[in-house]
Amino acid sequence: MVKICYLYYNNFFSGKRVAKYGDVIAEKTGLGGLWIGVVLVAVTTSLPEIFTGIGSTVFVNAPDLTIGNLFGANSYNLLNLWLLDFLHKGKPLFSIVSSGQLLTAILSLVPVLIASLGIFLTSKLPQYTIANISIYSILILLSFLTSTRIIFKFEKSRREIADELDKEEKILLKYEHISFLKACILFTIFAAIIAASGIWLAYIGEEIATVLRIGRTFAGSLFLGLATTLPEAAVSIAALLIGAKELAVANLLGSNLFNTAIIFMNDLLYRKAPIFTAISQQHIFTGLIVVIMTVLVCLGLILKPQKKIIFRLSSYSLGLIVIFILGTYVNFVLGKR
Q1: Is residue 242 pLDDT above 80, yes or no?
Q2: Rounded distance, CA 247 to CA 29, Å?
Q3: How far apart are CA 94 and CA 317, in angstroms?
Q4: DSSP class of 94
């Protein structure tokens, strides 16, 4: 327990600095707009998921841990929207963020659906692979690349979210006192710390699953998912507290879009077999929870609730909490079997 608490703190601390110096690099190189929240910050705060996946597949030989971690991280990112809604004063957060967030949420559904379908069909249909990589992993990667291109075109054609994020960048990204070289060096240092902790997390996740007899799927979804999403939570809360609400939401939704694409990387590293043939069917349920929570977020972004009904939360935030708790309970029961 001491180990996992230490790694939670490490990922929270290092993740904030990785995101910060990633932002410095973005500012110095001229990157901006929607890419800051959806691509650059989302990718940098997802470094724990990347390296936990490397640890799980390469060193621990437990692909169930990495898939559980990725789906679990996605569900935690969506759950964190309730916290942002609670911290945001006035109208519900869903009602004031721009339409670009809806696009990102919808696009993040595609790779999760492909992954869930791939897990379901693996035991029922012949497996098609390229260089021992599952066709489903390849489709996930293509969906991610296509999504980032769609977001890029959206930013060019509609300036609504881009203009808002540009304003937020002026508040959040003023780094004249930090040189580009210093930013690159510090970014690399903190990324290396996260890489080391991510590999260690894989070993700890395996240990927790064995000691508590809860199964790798549940251990990955609950414990590793929470640990690896601390950087996303830290960055989004910090962004919201200084008024950068678009960046706060874009970071969480963008991380979900990127996280599922990590499955391709894990499949590439897991040389024993295509990774979809080595993981539990239980992940279908976890993927379904992510899909349901994402659909609820999309509905909130479309219908834009105007009032918070209880505990400074909108009905959609309360729905996210209920779905997450129920999903965690069922996942625990399945993991004990």
Answers
A1: no
A2: 19
A3: 9
A4: G
Count CB neighbours of 152 within 10 A.
Answer: 15
pLDDT, tens digit, 9 for 90 and up, residues 102-132: 998 999 999 999 999 999 998 888 888 898 8
Contacts with 167 (C-beta within 8 Å, 6 or more apart), sequence order: none
Residue 66 near residue 220, CB atoms below 8 Å: yes
What are the tokens at 83? 């916290």
pLDDT digits (tens, 9 = 90+) for 35-77: 555 566 677 777 777 877 777 787 778 788 788 888 888 998 9
Distances in whole angstroms, Cα of residue 216 to Cα of each of 11, 71, 228, 281 = 21, 13, 16, 12
Tell me the whole-structure pTM to 2 decimals. Answer: 0.80
Q: Amino acid identity, residue 49?
A: E
Strand ranges for the chain from DSSP E:
129-130, 133-134
Q: Could you give the domains of the chain? A: 2-336 (1.20.1420.30)
Angle (CA) 148 153 157, round 5°: 150
Q: At what angle do helices 63-87 and 99-122 cross, to 10 degrees?
A: 160
Q: Is 187 exposed, middle or buried (0-12, 13-18, 19+ CB in 10 A)?
A: buried
Comparing CA positions, the residue from 63, 81, 11, 95 lying closest to residue 254 is: 81
How many other C-beta atoms are found inside a 10 Å radius of the C-beta of residue 271?
Answer: 10
Q: Which of 108, 115, 337, 134 is nearest to 217 (CA)?
A: 337
CA distance 175 to 272: 46
- Of 245, 227, 186, 251, residue with least CA distance to 41: 251
User: Which residue, chain included where needed, has tokens 């003023």?
Assistant: 174
DSSP 310: B
H-run or E-run covering 261: helix 245-269
b vs e for 281-318, b when ≥16 Cβ sit within 10 Å of the residue's Cβ? ebbbbbbebbbbbbebbbbbbeeebeebeeeebbbbbb
Q: Among candidates 218, 191, 269, which has minimal Cα distance to 72?
A: 218
- For residue 334, the tally of other CB atoms under 10 A from its CB is 16
